[in-house]
Amino acid sequence: MEFFHQQKTLLLSELLIFCMISVASSLGPMYTPPEVERLTDRFSRLSVSQGYNVFFGGVNVRLTNNGSSADLILDKSSGSGLVSRDKYYYGFFNAALKLPANFTSGVVVAFYLSNQNIFPHNHDELDFELLGYDKRRDWVLQTNIYGNGSVSTGREEKFYLWFDPTQDFHDYSILWNNHHILFLVDNVPVREVVHNTAISSVYPSKPMSIYVTIWDGSQWATRGGKYPVNYTYAPFVTSIKGVELEGCVSQQNASAASACARRSTSSLDPVDGEEFVKLSQQQMTGLDWARRKHMFYSYCQDTRRYKVLPPECTAT
Fold first, then answer.
1. Please, which residues have CB within 8 angstroms of residue 173's CB and are 6 or more apart in sequence?
2. What is the 3-state secondary structure (H, E, C) of 206-251?
3. Hey, CA dihedral for 147, 151, 156, 161, is it positive or negative?
């Protein structure tokens, strides 16, 4: 009898280990990122209600914790979104997001900068787009950049994350100045766009608003639209806190930093110091790690899409 009890215990242990391995593999490999500087610690955090207004889907925007955080909801009736109260020329922008769990194919959660409402034909845009998954895939992180209306050239790069973004809040940050643009996840750089001659004509050059949205991207988001949103699993809820909006606040009808004003310091541009000109050694290590282990698509490697690669892809 004791033998059978031991065998049963062993079998249950093996089954538990198998289940744990299966769960981990379904989420993809979980890696520990290298140590990097915490840029998010250098800037003050705002409540959601201090930094943002409702952009659309008002009934699906729910302020929580006295406005310090918010839930954005996508259901059959509508998606929802926030827009910053101010427009910014250069700066550091952060949102701590927790994404919807379960079957989220076709769902898009976006944190981005844009001025399309003011410059419809030559707008600038810097995008984080988090693309929902089917039952066999993780959430996908996509970054993109448009400058001066350069929408005919998609500059997408796609990554798998090194954590489960549905279990806790994670920081998604964009640093934009005259030297470079950085996309960071939990302070780890995943993409750098250097402002050089090759990309100068499409480098974002005008003040932008900051947006956080959740919406239905069925036509394209999950495997090119193969898996649309399944509203059986609705409502889809993404939560936001950890708001950082540290930039040169653009005055009405302004188009340059000279017409900006900052509330907290004498400098117009909060990311104009030496520490923001180029990556530190730690940040370079983090960028290399993120791109080697987690990037699975870059437009600069897509020779089927581009017979001649965009000039910045071959610039030295």
1. 39, 40, 92, 93, 94, 182, 183, 184, 185, 187, 244
2. CCEEEEEEEEECCCCCCCCCCCCCCHHHCCEEEEEEEEEEEEEEEC
3. positive
Q: Which residues pair with 53 in a beta bridge?
A: 83
Provide the annotated active-site residues. 125, 129
Q: What is the C-alpha separation between 65 and 296, in angstroms, rounded?
A: 37
Do the beta carbons of residue 229 and residue 216 sit within 8 Å?
Answer: yes
CA distance 113 to 128: 9
Residue with tokens 């100068």: 200
| Phi, psi dihedral angles at 193 (to 5 degrees) | -115, 105
pLDDT digit of tens for each residue in the chain (316 aa)? 554 455 545 444 444 434 443 444 344 556 799 999 999 999 999 999 999 999 999 999 999 999 999 999 999 999 999 999 999 989 999 999 999 998 899 999 999 999 999 999 999 999 999 999 876 678 999 999 999 999 999 999 999 999 999 999 999 999 999 999 999 999 999 999 999 999 999 999 999 999 999 999 988 777 777 888 999 999 999 999 999 999 988 876 544 545 565 444 445 678 888 889 999 999 999 999 999 999 999 999 999 999 999 999 998 6
Cβ proximity of 280 and 123 under 8 Å: no
